[in-house]
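Sat 14:20. Reprocessing the chain from the morning session after the first attempt stalled halfway. Input below, unchanged.
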Amino acid sequence: MSTAYVHAALLLHFAGQPINEENLKKVLEAAGIPPDEARVKVLTAALSEVNIEEAIKAAPTLAAPAAAPTAAPAEAKPAEEKKEEKKEEEEEKKEEEALSGLGALFG
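Finished this time. Tokens:
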């Protein structure tokens, strides 16, 4: 399911509007996205059984990244240590990206 459909549903929820096929289509069209009838039906049917407010509260949230420590002089760390740190930072970034994608699925 495209995240545009989920975002449209969330927009309707936050606006206090019912999340039904007609409203979802209107939001998508207003955003310039031609609505796919099947996706609209599937999403509205799936969300009819979901308490969106509770799902939002239960969704995992990412903490703001900690401020980076000030850089030490380059000669203070061996090249191997620098490579390890860079690899760890890349892994953390990948994990954060994966978690943010999961949050869009209502937890």
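The two ends are 15 Å apart (CA to CA).
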